[in-house]
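agent> fetching stored inputs for the HDE docking request
agent> found them:
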Amino acid sequence: MTTPDDKDRRLGRFRVDPDHGSRLTTDQGIPVDDTDNSLRVGERGPTLMEDFHFREKLTHFDHERIPERVVHARGTGAYGYFEVTDPLTEYTSAEFLRDTSLRTPVFVRFSTVAGSRGSADTVRDVRGFATKFYTRQGNFDLVGNNMPVFFIQDGIKFPDFVHAVKPEPHNEIPQASSAHDTLWDFVHLQPETTHMMMWLMSDRALPRSFRMMQGFGVHTFRLVDEEGAGTFVKFHWKPRLGTHSLVWDETQKIAGKDPDFNRRDLWEAIEAGQYPEWELGVQLVPEEREHAFDFDLLDATKIIPEEEVPVRPVGRLVLDRNPDNFFAETEQVAFHLGNVVPGIDFTNDPLLQARLFSYLDTQLIRLGGPNFTQLPVNRPVAEVRNHQRDGYHQSAIHTGRAAYHPNSLSGGCPAVVPEGAFTHYQERVDGNKIRKRSESFADHYSQATLFWNSMSDWEKEHIIAAFRFELGKVEHRHIRQGVVANLNNVDHYLAVSVAEGVGVEPPAQPATPNHGRSSPALSQANAPRDSVETRKIAILVADGVDTGDVQTIREALSAVGAIPEVLAARDGEAEGSEGPVEVTRALPTVGSVLYDAVVVPGGKESVTALEADGSAVQFVTEAFKHGKAIGAVGDGIRLLSSARLNGVNDRGEALTADQGVVLQSASGVTGEFIEQFVVAVAAHRHTNRDLAPVPA
Ligand code: HDE
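agent> prediction call returned; pasting tokens
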């Protein structure tokens, strides 16, 4: 049986520990007695060429960097395992999708797309979600994104799209942002981008955590059974903690306060044993139904609405180990859409077909030759035997004389055997050589409208604000106008709202009437919101804080899996009413944007001090602005008054728990307060507040 340990054990052979008691040596194993002074002529003389230790050390350093990925340069990864829970035996011969006793080891890398390796995590972008399954039948890579569609239909457009979204070539501005002329110039001239641009302008582009993000294989793939019969399949990852997003103002501030926000979040959750988990789901479409939809299954700018073909949950992915070395593992991992195992095959999606070329090609330049498959993180757990030889960084010592097939000198080995081999799906293909897209790819708007119609009011507001922000950064007015014209095919109200925000002519009539259909599964408002696990909750304190309140809040929140942190003006301890209260972090080192919720315990003196501290007042104001749960007990309510937050809502009523503001005027935290507060945190964001006048 393959267990995660198999990959881990194999990695173990390559680990080099800085053993206690070990000696410093050169790369040739020669012990070194001084690594702080170069060899020179006299104390003040020139350095000598013969100082081999100096030259080796500097040369190695000079060559430390490799090219970053041309896209998805910024990323982070982790190991874990996959288990099939509902076997797909009748559809595929892939063992890891059939055998419930297998625990297939995996490595997953999450990424942003446009930014450089050192760019911030919380930018508006698509997120990569790439999984390498080390199956017993060989490596299978599911190289997906957190959005189910893509910008273009044919891979030949990929260089154009990427050149448009990357920093502009004359001044290399802006970094990790789509808010600039070249991207929107491309987009307004290429209407097939419209559906994906709706996703990119939505909250999906701002995940709260990689652990709270869906994943999609995007293309239609094919499962192939033991008899060679095929079934179309779309792959989905669904996070156990629900799909949740940040808000735009928050993401921009986090990019400064903690550019590693998503990376740190994943790392810390795994270190804390709170292992992230996803459910693998499949949408299966029998081959006879290939043409049963009003879109083409081969068009990667389309989803199959879940209401038309339900997602069947089939397995579980758990990430439970951080890598030992970022470069060796996360940077050198090489994914390739073409890594498939028997039982999984491709379709003629022209985007997919282009990717089959690109991924292998890119590794050759990025990892410096054809032997990157021998890097520890890339090695399959399945045995590798073939006649591939030599090349840069060959680390295998192939013995014997015969590196060809057929041979008699090695007894004909490695031999070609039919059992268990990959057999390509025998699709009949017949046609003329043409450069032409199928008519069935021509509708670029219906699903963009479907997405828009499926959004809640708050999500729609965010989409409009995002278009306004991005187009507001576009200098050329004809581009702004062109985008609005495109949007007028999606929804008239959307087009008019965007036009009004960016100072161009709003269209008088809809270009295409809105079809009125929606798909509830697309809205994050319908994602489960019942857990506070791993949510970070700030407890604001100062000297004089009610010790009992802090203790009860801390214990109660920890008991439900949240992460409470006590924040005060200074690190160390605060002097509580009945003894010292340990401070987790000093306020100046954090900010409300790094927390999911905030609670202010009682204590007259403490609250008076917080009221006089602008950063504490701003903390609650900003949390309110971002729709987060806020709790206050006894005197703590006064801080909300200072922040002018315990006033009225947009209906002129006092703020209530259903708006995520949980107040308890009596002192001494009660069970009821905790219960209401936990529900408010689990709701993730409260959209029924009057946010416009709140300064943050
Ligand atoms: Fe990629 N993509 N891509 N892509 N992609 C790369 O491969 C490419 C596409 C995705 O964490 C590159 O190793 C082309 C769709 C992820 O290492 C490169 C086309 C989807 C990652 C490449 C696409 C993706 C990549 C850059 C259009 C979602 C990061 C470095 C035909 C289904 C993998 C590398 C990691 C990386 C090419 C479109 C996802 C250049 C030509 C659609 C998650 O090969």
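agent> quick read of the result: The two ends are 55 Å apart (CA to CA).
agent> awaiting further instructions
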